[in-house]
Amino acid sequence: MTIEAVGLSKRYGSVLAVDALTFTVPRGVVTGFLGPNGAGKSTAMRLMLDLDRGEGRTAFDGKPLKEHRHASRVVGAHLDAKVFHPQRTARNHLRMVGSDAGVSNARVDEVLSMVGLDSVARKRPKTFSLGMSQRLALAGAVLADPMCLMLDEPANGLDPQSIQWLREFLRNYASQGRSVLVSSHLLSEMQLMADRIVVIAKGKLITDGTVEDFVSMSTRNDVLVRCDRPEALVELLRAEGVTAVAEGPDGLAVIGESTDRVGEAAFRAGVVVRELVSRRASLEEAFLELTSDAQGFAAGGQL
Amino acid sequence: MSGQIRYEWLRLTTIRSTWIMLAMPIVLAAAVGWLFGHFSSALDRSGQGLTIGFELLINASPVMTLAAVFLSVVFAQAIGQEYRHGLIRVTLTQFPHRNRVLVVKIAMMSILVLVMAVIVVAVLWGAAIVGIAPTGGSIRYIAATDNPLIVRALLYVLVFTAIAFAITMITRIIQLGIILPIVLALLVEPIIRVIVLIATGGSNGGRPDIASEPLILRLLPFSSGQSALATDGDPWQGLLIFAIWGAVLLIPGWILFVRRDA
Q1: Does A82 touch chain B (CB under 8 A)?
Q2: Same domain for A79 and A181?
Q3: For A190-229, how does the pLDDT look when each residue is reduced to its tens digit (9 = 90+)?
Q4: Which residue of A has its CA nearest to B97?
Q5: A295, B36, B81, B168 - which has most CB atoms within 10 Å?
């Protein structure tokens, strides 16, 4: 089931939190939803689920959520970890959440076991840690075995083992032909988890594509060449309109070229090459570079 | 819709406070009914047993109003807890048709409140009989006047609780939904009544008599509601005014629920 968001917009007074956002969450892959703080990710997710009132439309398998007979079998959402009544036991919370899909008590117990909360199933979640609350919220999202998952920062508060489990779980879930949209600030984690990413900043779409496509947009993809006479190579490269920046006493960072081209240029310049390596920006580096002028609530002051 | 009914039922019954709030008016009705019967018999000078009119149980005791207060907590929680704990997003993700969500909530809570009000009346009556019986007294029930009184009492409780629900829907603050009706009924309206009666130079010195009062007093919501528990005057008119107030608050609450961000 594919999710298609078209023209999502939301204004809070004079602030345009989400601005004509259009993207697709295809089936079969995990789609990461990235953006700086205040970029509008959570608002966009709420708009997609019709929880916030704004403009635009979202289709789940071609139809708005309202037009599906059982919405909980279409999409499972986890928008906030602490979404439960503190006095209602974890098990009863899930029994309630599973009402629309007619989920059995056995399924409730199965999901509680899956997220590792079976030992506290009959405890009230008022004493749950953030990590346990995240697991309960995740259990609620997957309870009805929906075709789409929408998770907002599900890894917050999870320990490394749980994050690894979550990554495997979501990849496995998507591999069954389902759609998974997951937002996170953990970019290194997202690089491991997501096949595609939707990046937004100040409510606007920056990119909607594969992680590779996004990273390739970064100027930090370069070729490092170390040689005996870097000044000769720089001269030749600049004459050919190639950007090269000195890096160390004998190194050059050549931007926008392949190792083959730089190797050929070195040969023509008559220099002895000691190292020639292609360097790829990480998702984090690309993200920071491409959203640097669009930080919503960035910390930049000195301590 | 059956899924939503199940959802509401589980939401309601899996919280301990619901059961406490449902038990309180029953306990209260039993206690007040028994005390009413028991101590009324002390007024008997004939030694043959005192007969007390059923209507006194309804309009001379505070049971129906107190039952309404306890049940208004349950009714207000139906929407207030959802906002307070963020569950409204879970609810509306599962059930995206907001109008249907409200219809089911209001229908289920109304049925619950009416059933509880019937139980409260029955317990009040039964306890009063138990309280007065040892002295040979009895509770007189006149179907022609007491049947409509019971209907009005049930509707009074329903409207009272619906007002708490509506205020909670509008403000999204459960405490306001619960406290505001009590403050209005017990503090604000009596003060208005005194001020108006002093200003107009009239006082009936007791229970509101809608027909003879200035218009402004006849339109006060909770005073009108109280007059619905009487058997004199025009109690149906009082109930109607009370119900109109309920509707006046429910309509904007409904519109806001549908239009606002969850």
Answers
A1: yes
A2: yes
A3: 888 999 999 999 999 998 999 888 888 877 788 999 999 9
A4: A66
A5: B168
Task: Kindly determine whether residue B87 and residue A83, on different chains, have CB atoms separated by under 8 Å.
Answer: yes
The C-alpha of A179 sits at a distance from chain B's nearest C-alpha, in angstroms, of: 17
Closest CB to B261 among A51, A70, A88: A51
- The boundaries of the domain holding residue A266 are 222-279
**First-to-last CA distance in chain B?**
20
User: Exposed/middle/buried for B116, CB within 10 Å: 0-12, 13-18, 19+?
Assistant: buried
Does residue A67 sit in the same domain as residue A152? yes
* Helix or strand (DSSP H, E) at B83: helix B63-84
Chain A interface includes B100 (CB < 8 A): no
Q: Does A191 touch chain B (CB under 8 A)?
A: no
Interchain contact, A95 vs B14, CB within 8 Å: yes
Among positive and negative, which fits the CA dihedral B87, B89, B94, B97? positive
State how many domains chain A has. Answer: 2
Assembly ipTM: 0.86
The answer to whether residues A160 and A265 belong to one domain is no
Same domain, A192 and A241: no
Please tell me which residue, A192 or A186, carries the higher pLDDT value.
A192
Q: Determine contact, residues A114/A139, Cβ cutoff 8 Å.
A: yes
Nearest one of A108, A191, A174 to A143, comparing CA atoms: A108
Residue in B15, B86, B262 nearest the CB of A88: B15
Q: Which residues contact B191 (CB under 8 A, 6 or more apart)?
A: none
Give the tokens for residue A7.
Answer: 């023209």
- Closest CB to A51: pick one of B4, B6, B92: B92
Q: Is A201 helix (H, G, I), strand (E, B) or coil?
A: strand
Q: Are residues A74 and A185 in the same domain?
A: yes
Is residue A39 domain-resident? yes
**B19 chain-A contacts, CB cut-off 8 A:** none
Query: Closest residue of A to B2, CA-based?
Result: A100
On whether both A156 and A58 belong to a single domain, the answer is yes
Q: Given pLDDT bands bounded at 50, 70 and 90, which one contains residue B189?
A: very high
B-chain residue closest to A137, CA distance: B90
A143 touches chain B (CB under 8 A): no
Say yes or no: A212 and A227 in one domain.
no
pLDDT tens per residue across span A144-177: 999 999 999 999 888 889 899 999 999 999 999 9
Task: State the CATH number of the domain containing residue A244.
Answer: 3.30.70
What CATH number has the domain bearing residue A40? 3.40.50.300
User: Which among B10, B92, B259 has CB closest to A96?
Assistant: B10
